[in-house]
Amino acid sequence: MIFTIMHITFHYVAERGIERPKIPVTLSYKGIKIQTLALLDSGSDLTILPIDIAEALGMDISGKTQETKGIGGAIDTVLETITIGVGKDGKFDIIPKMSVRINKTKQSPIRDMLLGRIPFFDHFIIEFDEHAKTVTLRKKRM
Amino acid sequence: MENEYEWILHNSNVIEQISEKWVIVIDNKIVSVGNNLKQMMEDFRKDHPKEVPFVLRVPEEGFMIV
Q1: Which of A12, A53, A99, B28 is 20 to 30 A off residue A39, Cα-Cα?
Q2: Residue B24 CB contacts under 8 Å (≥ 6 apart), including other chains
């Protein structure tokens, strides 16, 4: 049986006439915090953090590089962990030490944070309503 | 966070004029624009040591497949 203990709906974010399922997140790394928009990307296996944000947070990008493939080609990534907070209207959830892959390829046309299925989608039931241009996150408890 | 997020949702036309650059928003105002987010954050923290900035970058025009 699944109990829903948190339920938040976000409106898509308009970018040059295209509305996208981006949600506000708070990223914390060793005492430094940044808020940003992250794209919910069910087509991505992994959660990707752009190097710009990683450097702004003072993250260590010297770890072992792994090639990660995507539709535009391949990028070099480094595995790290970060605390991520999600929520609004008084409802928040914190995911401590969430694995992210830092995109070290600065020439990449994708400069957004991508919330892929691993591990972010493990924490929520996520519902995309393309017609209403909203995305709803439900925190589940088994 | 909610104030900046709501401001960004309702002021996309303002932010879109800043093409493909990083933007820092605090207290519903754009306080920094540039290409080097790391340097922008270092400068931001000198004047706002305790505040949590909202950073974003408007992508290029056109559809994306990610």
Answers
A1: B28
A2: B30, B31, B32, B33, B40, B41, B44, B53, B54, B55
Is B50 part of the contact surface with chain A (CB cutoff 8 Å)?
no
Classify strands A48-50 and A91-103 as parallel, antiparallel or unpaired. parallel
Residues B18-60 have pLDDT tens digits of: 878 999 999 999 999 999 999 999 999 999 999 999 999 987 7
Mean pLDDT of the A71-79 span: 84
Point out the least confidently predicted range of A4-8, A129-133, B22-26.
A4-8
CA terminus-to-terminus distance, chain A: 6
- Residues of chain A with Cβ-Cβ distance to B65 below 8 Å are 71-72
Distance of CA B63 to the CA centre of its chain: 21
Cβ-Cβ contacts under 8 Å, A111 against chain B: 57, 59
Residues in chain B with CB shorter than 8 Å from the CB of A11 are: 9
- Residues A54, A61: contact at Cβ < 8 Å? yes
**N- to C-terminal Cα separation, chain B:** 26
Indicate the pTM of the whole model.
0.91
- Residue in B4, B56, B61, B63 to test binding to A, most A beta-carbons within 10 Å: B56
